[in-house]
Design a protein that fits this description.
By secondary structure, the chain is of the alpha/beta class. The chain has ten helices and ten strands.
């Protein structure tokens, strides 16, 4: 959304990006209920993954003041795999009591428009018909990263956020990789060897990778895989990883 906003500004639109720590919307409360929005200063508010219960209550109040509210969603939070850390974070009865996937559903129900990254998400968050698919694309700098072709096979993901996806390739990776040809993970390699039935030969990155550094690390692969298990959550996933791999050579 940052890159989209930069493109809109370059085209002459008045757009301001406010990250979560810089949000300045003030809510007047009556107990646990939001009664009023105090400092509305825009014509259109775009929110991403609006999961907080008070912000969900704020959506219809903003619309009552004549403000268009757009909620952008890129995953079906209600079908996250239980082994994904995000499951506990968004589950209605676990984690932060203010954040859950029910609040996101309520936000989308009351929004002026819901934007999603795949057609599958329209059926989850825009059944009211006020939805639009904005397919994922990449910024220009992805297409300028140096790449040398090779037979280095790898996965630009981690088991933490893709707990059951390696099952989609069966034993293919273990037949191709091992001690003589390592399998590369552009992320934390924890649990990857077992997930792909590899005894050894898994190479990973043992540190966080910044968003601007990510393309350079992925470009070091010669062959990239993006397996997805046949699940409801994955049916709503976008083509972002194959798109990244293709752009990076």
């Amino acid at each position: 959304m940052i890159w989209v906003s930069e493109a809109l500004r370059a085209a002459g639109h008045d757009v301001e990006v406010r990250p979560p720590g810089a949000r300045d919307i003030q809510l007047r409360m009556k107990g646990e209920k939001v009664s009023e929005i105090l400092n509305v200063d825009g014509d259109v508010y775009v929110f991403q993954r609006l999961t907080h219960n008070r912000m969900a209550q704020a959506v219809p109040l903003l619309r009552e003041q004549g403000v268009a509210v757009v909620v952008d969603v890129d995953d079906d939070l209600s079908s996250i795999h239980p082994r994904n850390p995000a499951y506990d974070a968004y589950h209605p009865h676990r984690g932060d009591p203010h954040h859950n996937w029910h609040n996101l559903a309520a936000s989308c129900r009351d929004a002026t428009l819901v934007t999603v990254s795949t057609p599958g998400l329209l059926g989850v968050y825009a059944k009211h018909g006020r939805g639009h698919v904005l397919y994922n694309h990449l910024p220009d700098h992805y297409y300028d990263v140096p790449h040398e072709d090779s037979d280095r096979i790898g996965w630009p993901a981690s088991l933490q956020s893709h707990p059951d996806d390696p099952s989609a390739v069966g034993g293919a990776v273990s037949r191709l990789c091992g001690r003589e040809r390592p399998f590369h993970v552009v992320a934390d390699r924890s649990g990857v060897a077992d997930a792909f039935s590899l005894r050894d030969g898994v190479v990973g990155i043992q540190r966080p990778i910044g968003i601007m550094e990510w393309p350079e690390e992925v470009a070091k692969l010669g062959i990239g895989i993006a397996p997805l298990a046949d699940t409801r959550f994955n049916a709503c996933k976008s083509w972002l990883k194959p798109l990244e791999l293709s752009a990076l050579g």
